[in-house]
């Protein structure tokens, strides 16, 4: 959500939402990432929903591009904008011999891409040195409107124990530059190399949150106040909570599901706050361990329940999340869509599951071809009969 007047559009707390999706650009023949972002973005032109904040943007590596929706009020509108953004970028990528790929990390190996042009990107490269040499990580960022910054910080406190569940469901990066790893979400392994990455710390107020960020900037750990690495935060620009925990989804439908769950969690947190229920200060290390477990196993193994401190099947944790936000989903009109989409992922597998299945059948090239198709078509394929329920 990047138009200058977006702050005037985000008027409905717990209803207004927007999504930013980051994509890889790969060579159509070799499958390796290519630094074509400037050309692809120039040809893509202006976003159809630019007046409500939609846009196409450059990312830090010159091999990545971003599509941001405008501010949406319902899932049908969000789905339409997600599919439009993907289709437009895929079209301009193909015109130059490249393909658009929705994966959290590159499937194929290759030389690290250059950093995109711009003073801020140059400052980031100088600050973090060779950590950025092979950094290519694509996420899905969801913004949900909130009344004010103080409320945003309080909502983030409520989100902390659920971030690992969102990560496990969205895992879509088992590869690391040509190598199939033991992780469902290799992108998270890349992200935690940066200072302060992971589950955000509990903050009793917006002032306390801002003091932390200011200290990190003054210590030259962060380039500026807009560059925290926490996976959920008050947006530094808009009256929203921004959740950045998920890999970019292979399909637009999975992005819709993720956005609906995030909005449900934010709406539920707003209801709790209105009733005077503040979030407990869950242990930072327990939340971090739950996040690691989700990155390692995705939905295929046990996850760590921050509430009970016990290993619990990942699908049960997701069921708990859906149960928590069920009243909010029903109120928003999202419940039927979420139930259907969760069932679709349960049958077809997560993006990471599908990548592994394609790799067994045809290697990395088969994975890449599958991802190119899913990125452009937007819907989950028919589920195989052997997926766990």
Note down, in words, how this protein is organized:
The chain has 389 residues and is an alpha+beta fold. The protein has a single domain, classed as Creatine Kinase, Chain A, domain 2. The chain is built from 13 helices and 11 strands. The strands form 3 sheets. Strands 1, 2, 3, 4, 5, 8 and 9 form a 7-stranded antiparallel beta sheet that branches. A hairpin with a 2-residue loop joins strand 6 and strand 7. The radius of gyration is 19 Å and the shape is globular. The C terminus is likely disordered.
Please give a quick description of this structure:
This protein is an alpha+beta fold and 389 residues long. The chain has helices at residues 6-9, 37-44, 75-95, 119-128, 149-159, 163-170, 186-191, 206-218, 252-274, 284-297, 314-332, 335-348, 351-377, and strands at 17-27, 55-58, 64-68, 98-101, 139-145, 175-176, 179-180, 232-234, 240-247, 302-305, 310-313.
C-alpha geometry:
globular
**Number of helical segments?**
13
SSE ordering? HEHEEHEHEHHEEHHEEHHEEHHH
Query: Share of helix among residues?
Result: 40-55%
List low-pLDDT spans. 382-389
User: What does the main sheet amount to?
Assistant: 7 strands, antiparallel
Fraction in beta strands: 5-15%
CATH class: Alpha Beta
CATH architecture: 2-Layer Sandwich
How many structural domains are formed by the residues? 1
Structural class of the helix and strand makeup? alpha+beta
How many strands appear in the DSSP assignment? 11
Overall mean pLDDT stands at: 93
Distance between the termini: 36 Å
Rg (CA only): 19 Å
CATH topology: Creatine Kinase, Chain A, domain 2
